[in-house]
Every structure is written in C-alpha cells, then in structure tokens.
Design a protein that fits this description.
72 residues; three-stranded antiparallel sheet; globular
Length: 72
C-alpha cells in the first residue's frame, strides 16, 4: 500500500500499471503513460525520489484520489 509520500519512479510506474495505465512511451520531453484519453507525463529518472507534491500533482492529473492510491 503506497502512501502519499516520496516514491521511486519505478514504483510509480508499477502502481500506475496496476491502475490500468499503459506505457511508459517515449514522446516529447518526457515519457508518458496512457489510460483511455488520459496522457500522463512521467518525470525523468533522477537520483532523488519523486516528491510528495509532485506525486500529488501527477495523481490529480490522472484522476486518482488519495484513497484509491493508498488502497493499492
């Protein structure tokens, strides 16, 4: 069960796949994942984890609420 906090890019991709997203695909400046008509940009892999604030923005864009995220 992932908490809404710092997360590794690999784990973010794993959990988004569990929620029905496909990818990541290469395109433009960032890779992206797709679910229906939602195209979700995925941050580049850096040494640091994805911050809580950035994770919250990604989930908001994906239409995933906090309860759904934490119930994985």
């Amino acid at each position: 069960m992932p908490l809404l906090g710092p997360i590794k890019r690999r784990d973010l991709i794993h959990y988004l796949r569990e929620l029905g997203f496909e990818g990541p695909y290469v395109g433009g400046k960032h890779q992206y994942m797709v679910k229906g008509e939602i195209n979700l940009a995925i941050p580049h892999a850096h040494q640091a984890d994805i911050s809580r604030d950035l994770l919250a923005r990604i989930l908001r864009q994906a239409g995933i609420d906090r309860d759904e995220w934490e119930s994985l």
